[in-house]
Amino acid sequence: MTEIAFQAITKQFGKAAKPAVDAVTFTVPADHTCMLVGKSGAGKTTLLRMVNRMIEPTSGKIVIAGKNVLEENPIELRRHIGYVIQQVGLFPHMNVAENIRVTAEVTGGWTKPRLARRVDELLDLVGLPPVEYRDRFPRELSGGQQQRVGLARALTTDPMILLMDEPFGALDAITRSQMQDELLRIQRNVRKTILFVTHDMEEALKLGDLIAVMHQGRLMQLGAPVDLLTHPVDDMVAQLVGSDNMLRELRYLTASTAADAGYPGPFPEAKPCPTCPPGSSLLDAMLKLFETRAPALALESVDSLPARYITLASIISTLTKGRRREGELESATATGRASGSP
Ligand SMILES: Nc1ncnc2c1ncn2[C@@H]1O[C@H](COP(=O)(O)OP(=O)(O)OP(=O)(O)O)[C@@H](O)[C@H]1O
Ligand SMILES: [Mg+2]
């Protein structure tokens, strides 16, 4: 169980006009995946690299599992922190197995047979059959396969934390999507606390339990993907996460967010409503409404709570709520200004 707590963490590079990371405070709970997003130069990489002390903070603390990392031995620290970057950096003269083993060999404490078993286990985990891949050299692998080896290497010593800096940034769309699914599968089996930098908002929404938005070294917002889509703190965040993107809302908001308390339910003589799992997307719910031509879907429920329904009207009202709130806010500010003026 490893949480990462940033406490007013700051990095000032030399005489730069502004700190690259400016008093950032937030916590990533154990076993959660936190995506770091923000424009180029926002401070994402700097924040990530302070966790394993590849960059030393100017002030503030990073507390991992209750211990201040600044008081830890950096080498010992990195043994518990896997690091994956876009330029995989496999050693060209070593084959796949040797590349995966190398971290464990450097840190020591592994017997040869145990390490060999571990290599095969990891190759399986990242979807590369060991018999076929363990003896190949990096030049005999595609970019996506190299990235898989990079991920396996980061997992060799079974670290509690994974730091990933645009790991899938250079992959084509299909391979990228496969790698994302792979990471989700791995995260279901061997849970880690993950900090993951990306420029791809779809990737952030798909992989993140949490998304941290950075801008000019500051943390602008931290929240679940749904929170960011529905309640962005300002226009910058809204624009970055695409809160006004209706298709995105349909894909990432769950059916339960549109459950309609006011719908009276099917009348006794009518056919029972088709059902829908509460966790399915609004998009799937909407398609099911179209396909079945039913007036409403009943949300499946595991307990004996009263039935909840979802209708086209409730979906539309969920989608427009955010926009309406913005409108209300604008008119409220306008009224405030008018009444406040002398
Ligand atoms: N070693 C360094 N020395 C001086 N300034 C640096 C150094 N590393 C980064 N910076 C500056 O710190 C700021 C944040 O850089 P950082 O690499 O953390 O951004 P980023 O959010 O990862 O950007 P990108 O999305 O382009 O990778 C930038 O203004 C950058 O120029
Ligand atoms: Mg970066």
Which features would summarize this protein structure in a list?
342 residues; globular; alpha/beta; 13 strands; binds magnesium ion; disordered C terminus; 6-stranded mixed β-sheet; 2 domains
Secondary-structure class: alpha/beta
The radius of gyration is 24 Å
Strand order in space, largest sheet: 6-7-8-3-9-10
- Secondary structure: helix percent: 40-55%
- Tally of separate domains: 2
Total number of beta strands: 13
What is the H level of CATH, i.e. the homologous superfamily of the largest domain? P-loop containing nucleotide triphosphate hydrolases
Which word captures the global form?
globular
Q: Estimate what percentage of residues fall within beta strands.
A: 15-25%
Q: What would CATH call the architecture of the largest domain?
A: 3-Layer(aba) Sandwich
Mean pLDDT: 86
Compact overview of the structure:
By secondary structure, this protein is an alpha/beta fold.
What does this structure look like?
The chain has 342 residues and is of the alpha/beta class. It has two domains: 4-242, 3-Layer(aba) Sandwich (Rossmann fold), CATH 3.40.50.300; 245-342, no CATH class. It has helices at residues 44-51, 74-79, 96-107, 112-125, 130-133, 143-155, 173-189, 201-207, 225-230, 235-241, 246-252, 282-292, 312-340; strands at residues 4-11, 21-28, 33-37, 59-64, 67-68, 81-85, 161-165, 193-197, 210-215, 218-223, 275-276, 297-299, 309-310. Strands 6-7-8-3-9-10 form a six-stranded mixed beta sheet, sandwiched between helices. Helix 7 links the parallel strand 7 (161-165) and strand 8. The radius of gyration is 24 Å and the shape is globular. The model is unreliable at 328-342 (pLDDT under 50). Bound molecules: adenosine-5'-triphosphate (ATP) and magnesium ion.
